[in-house]
Amino acid sequence: MKKYYAVFIVLCFAPALYAQIDPSLLRRTPKDTGSLQMNMDAIYSRPFLQLGKLPVALGGYVEANYQYLKEDGISEGHQFQMRRLTLFVSSSISKRIKFLSEIEFEDGTKEINIEFASIDFELAPLLNFRGGVVMNPIGAFNQNHDGPKWEFIDRPISATQMLPATWSNVGFGVFGKKYVKDWVYAYEAYFTNGFDDKIIDNEDGKTFLPASKENPDRFEESFNGSPLFTGKVAVKNRKIGEVGLSYMGGIYNKYQEDGLVLDKKRRVNVFAIDFNTTLPKTNTWINGEWAWVNVDVPDTYTEQFGKKQQGGFVDVVQPVIKKPMMGFENAVLNLAVRLEYVDWNKGVFKSTGGNISDDVFAIVPAISWRPTAQTVIRLNYRRNKQQDILGNPPATMAGFQFGFSTYF
To answer: Bridge-partner residues for 80, per DSSP?
Structure first.
């Protein structure tokens, strides 16, 4: 309960403190000043507010929306949701030592998570040390997930229901970047606590990596004493775009207890590729990610627990109007669409040779209006078609979502 009391005190007294501050003392701290921003820079590429010469800067973002969805003609009616409130606290401890934390409140206060809380020691451009609660850099969305950056209300299915979105763990690692004219090369490598056997022993009744997020003990101890390795290399060209290749893998089961061997070591391995670019003539932004998951599932489990999974998404965002609108000088109206696909069980039945389905395809057209770069108001139409493991006619979910997200 202590964490709830601390949060309550901060939320109650922060407005009163802010009201007593001379606005002239408040200033926005600069973002990462690198000439080419990459997905790995997302944690620092955020607006922060700083009071005078205090070493601590504050920021955050909020998301809220309305939705009306139907699945095969059945609806839960009109729903208003407070998806998340996220707070950032950062500090430049010295010129080359930085601290940043990210605390997220989801669905009101149904979930409170520390998504990031690490110290960065800048030793050289190509060698920097990071320790604490780090964001595992698998794919691009896991790091670059802030709501105000996206034209879509829901996070990608592949990032939230196949990969565990905003997946973070306690650990240590190194990262670095090198600039060469119009190119920038980057890498990250971390050892952290990892997954547990919930990925195959969960209420969903299938191989489901996000189930490990339910274990709060992963910030205190490793489930099996074996580290999870996550590594990524990326390259970006000013004119072409950015490409990232990432890998995350480790042992997920408890293979021994007090020296007694319980099972063989079973691994989970994840590979991902991500890409983003902006077409120069039309200013069209294209962003995509695809991932492959391989899990060593025991032979005693039924075939509904997939050993191989794959999926991803691609977003296309087209600005159509850029001009002053309704008192906002730099407003932008966008048209966008997202295509999504996930196969939670890639393979065939041993008994029949028939395809194992358990997949989903979704299309999400969107209209978004950005009165400023840090705020988005968005209207989405979502249409999903999901098949069960036997490949029966797919269940169809469709409906509208409307909401906003903004940094503050």
So the answer is: 66
pLDDT tens, residue by residue, 273-289: 999 999 999 999 999 99
Alpha-carbon distance of 91 to 277, in angstroms, equals 32
Q: 377 falls in which pLDDT band (50, 70, 90)?
A: very high
Question: Is residue 338 within 8 Å of 364, Cβ to Cβ?
Answer: yes
Q: Is residue 157 predicted with pLDDT exceeding 90?
A: yes
Q: Are the C-beta atoms of 334 and 368 separated by less than 8 Å?
A: yes
Q: Say how far residue 296 (Cα) sits from the centre of its chain.
A: 25
How many Å apart are CA 9 and CA 16, to the nearest integer? 11
Query: In angstroms, rounded to a whole number, what is the distance separating the alpha carbons of residues 154 and 401?
Result: 9
Q: Residue 172 pairs with which residues in a beta bridge?
A: 131, 191
pLDDT tens readout for residues 320-351: 999 999 999 999 999 999 999 999 999 999 88
Question: Is the separation of the CB atoms in 295 and 202 below 8 Å?
Answer: no
Apex 84 CA angle, 139 and 165, nearest 5: 20
DSSP 206-248: S--GGGGGG-GGGGTS-SSS-PEEEEEEEEEETTTEEEEEEEE
Cα–Cα distances (Å) from 213 to 41, 114, 141, 293, in that order, read: 24, 12, 16, 17
Residue-range domains of the chain with CATH: 2-407 (2.40.160.10)
Token digits of residue 387: 């098949």
Q: CB–CB of 156/181 below 8 Å?
A: no
Q: Residue 379 in contact with residue 367, Cβ under 8 Å? A: yes
Sequence-ordered list of residues with C-beta below 8 angstroms from that of 241, at least 6 positions apart, any chain: 275, 276, 277, 278, 286
